[in-house]
Amino acid sequence: MSEMNKRQLLQGNEAVAHGALAAGCRFFAGYPITPASEIAEQLAMLLPRVGGTFIQMEDEIASMGAIIGASLAGVKSMTATSGPGFSLMQENLGYACCAEVPCVVVNVMRGGPSTGLPTSPAQGDVQMARWGTHGDHPIIVLATSSVSDSFTLTIKAFNLSEQFRVPVILLSDEVVAHTRECVQLPDPAEIRIINRLKPSVPPDWYKPYEGDNRGVPAMASFGDGYRHHVTGLIHDELGFPTEKSSEIESFQQRLTQKITRGFPQIMMTRGYRLDDAEVAVVAYGSVARSAMRAVDEARQQGLKAGLLQLITLFPFPRSHVTPILKQCRAVLVPEMNNGQISREVQRVNQGICNVVKHNRIDGQFITPDELYARLIKL
Predict the structure, then answer these.
(1) Average pLDDT, the chain
(2) Which of 61, 98, 114, 357 is 20 to 30 Å from 32 by CA-CA measure?
(3) 33-55 per-position pLDDT tens digit
(4) What is the mean pLDDT of residues 72-96?
(5) pLDDT band at residue 1, thresholds of 50, 70 and 90?
(6) Phi, psi (deg, nearest 5) at residue 232
């Protein structure tokens, strides 16, 4: 039996590190920060064993720059941080969006703002993950709720990043990061790995920002013999800065369209006891774990409750949420923030049913008992 097939007692952060290796990540640059440090610690030990590289950078700004450079050189790359470090990464994250550089950023959320609550759970970075960097651009944001998910969604994050040439953000939180669970990781042969599309034309014909039928350009690595001009300025198909309206609009539209065309691969949710549900919980991250328990307890009392767990947070899975809003008389949206995803649910709802928030911003975990009590009142 391979190491991957053995049942292992893993922490959420450790599972992220193992998932990154399984996805083909061979470069990590980061800076220690609670509650994400174990990801860096694990990869510092594991990456050299598979020929990879780990670098502790001087700060999170440099960390983001380093993984962009490594990705341009053809190496799958990742960094991991928490709220204050994620703030510092935003400018370079925008650069990666504009230059279409695939990479993965893990943000293990903690209480904020500023230094906030370094050892307490929170979900306050959700809207920041979508809108933290300036400009109008798409991005993919996933949320993990368990140790097993931390492994599989890290792989999924790399696959989506490579498939669509876009940074992917994986949100965890302090509870998921430091929970230990016994998991059996899949055999490497069973794991689907997606790599970026390489040019199929000679170097003289190569246009580094010419999209295929999905809107995704083939990506040559530095050193492959292909000319590749990379800039954070809006650029034409050759990568050179442009101020032509037609080229600017074409570029901006393609950035969005490559994501909208990929909705079937990107949108992920998980339904639980929804078939006959009259009330539902829409939750994500560690709160989804409490919600599942609360749903079971409500069912024992005769309340037809269900759970829609959001795995993809952005693009917001509207097509998955709308049927639940139409089916149920009330929907509860619990979050460890003041209501960041509930705004998205309300935007989709448009008065279809009663949407109720349940929020904690005191650094404490939302418990099953809290959610059970709210469901009974609904």
Answers:
(1) 97
(2) 98
(3) 999 999 999 999 999 999 999 99
(4) 98
(5) very low
(6) -85, -5
